[in-house]
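Below sits our specimen:

——
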Amino acid sequence: MDRLDIRAAAEGDYPAVRAFYYDLTDEMADTPFRPGWEKDVYPTQDFLRDAIRRGELYLGLLAGELAACMVVNGQYNEGYRAAAWGTQAADEALLVIHALGVRMAFAGRGLAKAMARYALALARGQGKKAVRLDVLGGNLPAERAYTAVGFRYVDTLTMFYEDTGWTDYKLFEYPL
């Protein structure tokens, strides 16, 4: 894998971040493993701006080019409360990965795994007990990337998101 430089996004990065997610949504529209995203529905512009403002949005750069993005924070879908998580942890002891995406031109280089490992390092550095995430049912590349890093499948739940409606999501956890 090429060297991926990962850093927190700055407010001035917002136009590039918005363009990244717009372009990625277009690129993945006709793929068999769509993330289910829809422009301005998920991720919304407010979600991206707020994540940047709070220091929760991370950029993955290859030779200065924006190749990957993700949001890492303690927020999660209400459906998570119904899961039988392996690690019992209060909300403040958790981090959750959201909207991790890699541009199609950079696919197959291990960038999603590198971003996930970075999120794990953030969680360790903050003394968290676990990192959690959900994957739209059928998104096999995302599932493979997360399990390759060590995330464990926990459950499949039907959860509501604005972009997908009521849909099956697979939940994964990495205990720390």
About this structure: The chain has one domain: 5-175. Helices lie at 14-28, 45-53, 111-125, 140-149.
